[in-house]
Design brief:
2 copies of one chain form a homodimer. Chain A has 260 residues and is an alpha+beta fold. Chain A has 2 domains: 10-73, Arc Repressor Mutant, subunit A (Orthogonal Bundle); 83-256, Beta-Lactamase (2-Layer Sandwich), CATH 3.30.450. Chain A contains 10 helices and 8 strands. The radius of gyration of chain A is 20 Å and the shape is globular. Chain A binds a DNA duplex (30 and 30 nucleotides) through helix 1 and helix 3.
Chain lengths: 260, 260
DNA sequence: AATTAAGTTCCAAATAATGGAACTAAGCAG
DNA sequence: CTGCTTAGTTCCATTATTTGGAACTTAATT
């Protein structure tokens, strides 16, 4: 679960790996816990953690267990505020929300996961931090499947091979073959659907967003409760969701580079 | 502006310093810009940035300028959700908001700055990320001054010496002597006030929060528009703000350590 | 008081970072 | 188109940092 792919980024990579171990754990870890999860010798790990604490990336709880440091919030706040893609997408998300009245998500693909970058909803009942920055598996979310569909074939194969399927609901897709077939369908239609595949009672329609060279891949979705949003209604939003995605891509082309 | 205090945290420290340079800049920096701001040789800086990119901590815009990476959002989202202090404080912030009807902030002291950790307000008109994770100078905010007042004398002197005073409004305190006097007053009263010192038209009342050994220092505040919140009204909230801070400290004592 | 586990410090050996210089690519002026 | 300037990238012997085993201190448990 906390096993990060063995990176070759030297000292920094190892430090971030430790950070990842601490981030991935549900409950607070103490020194020995981290020691077991990492494959570093004690002396080494101890210094790495000391450095991370010194830099404010890790905080120490009173019982000597570790948590993520607040400096990360500081960085993230700036990352979010200054993110060009998010800034460009923002008005389009707003518009899509006004057109549908439902929650709109913006997420980017990283590996086989989706990182949620923004969210627009009517009642801000749930705290934003509970969503923004959160990740979800790409294979069982609308945004994720839309994003996967925008990958070039060779790259798609690589990613599909990395997916670790897990059953969240009775509708969750559970093998690469089914997923692959669905992605072909998404490419034809231009829209992806999440039919209560990640969370029971929640469905959505999504559309892919990508940069001209497809190095950057993202997606936008409209989400709602399944009891209220019938498949027909969902499908009726497919067009405007694609339109929003298209408008964001158009804006990216004009605003992010002199010529496309 | 981006000059971080020369740290001795080895390779990691240097990498984070680069991250800080990129975070501190208003507009996107290109390679040479970062080179000028850091005092690293080109080859070195180039590798450092490459590693940061590889780890997802820095992203590259299409014009080769750098921004903060989305992986920081991922970390921050977890840091926020799992933060023990914030979790403990949350219900008390909620209650304070219900009692006053105004915006409630929770912030922790880091050096001479305050990092905002949480916020409760009625109309979520402003995006949360625009506040949470944000920092502000301690000397001109209610939460910040309350926090400073909880520092032991020797530590306070150290921090006061580090403050770089800057004028935000006509009311901003501009020298250590005045600030020091005000902190003595705050210690007597148990409350700090921001009388439009950071932002014109915005005032607040705050109270300090600290761990038993005062290694961890924070503050809670009630903020409102000055045209509506007269000094009298503000003062009438002093008691419940102190009470909220006290309740949070009591909860910390019982929940964070077996015995105090 | 004895025993086990948890956390911390130390230092010679191994490894990774450094930084100067050489190199390529991009932008611009004549 | 050519030469000139600036921006960005790669290379590698030298240097400095990280490594990891073991010894050590402190805290918890029996």
């Amino acid at each position: 679960m906390a096993k990060t792919t063995e990176n070759a980024t030297g000292t920094l990579g190892k430090a971030i790996e430790v950070l990842d171990i601490i981030a991935s754990s549900a409950e607070p870890l103490r020194f020995t816990d981290v020691l077991k999860l990492s494959d570093q010798p004690r002396g080494t790990l101890h210094r790495q953690i000391s450095n991370l604490i010194e830099e404010g990336l890790i905080s120490v709880n009173r019982d000597n267990s570790y948590g993520l440091g607040l400096r990360l919030l500081q960085f993230a706040s700036k990352a979010w505020a200054s993110n060009q893609f998010r800034t460009i997408a923002e008005p389009h998300l707003q518009k899509l929300h006004e057109q549908t009245g439902e929650t709109v998500h913006l997420g980017v693909l990283r590996g086989t996961e989706v990182i949620y970058l923004d969210k627009v909803e009517s009642r801000q009942s749930v705290r934003m931090y509970s969503q923004i920055g959160n990740t979800a598996p790409a294979y069982c979310t609308g945004v994720g499947k839309a994003a996967l569909s925008a990958l070039p074939d060779d790259e798609l194969d690589v990613r599909l091979a990395q997916v670790e399927f897990r059953c969240f609901t009775p509708n969750t897709l559970l093998d690469a073959k089914t997923l692959s077939a669905e992605i072909r369908q998404i490419r034809l239609e231009g829209n992806a659907y999440d039919r209560e595949e990640h969370e029971a009672g929640i469905c959505c329609v999504a559309a892919p967003i990508h940069s001209y060279n497809r190095h950057f891949i993202a997606g936008v979705s409209v989400t709602g409760p399944a009891y209220r949003i019938t498949p027909d209604i969902l499908q009726s939003w497919a067009g405007i969701t694609r339109a929003a995605a298209g408008a964001i891509m158009a804006n990216m082309a004009t605003q992010l580079s002199p010529k496309m």
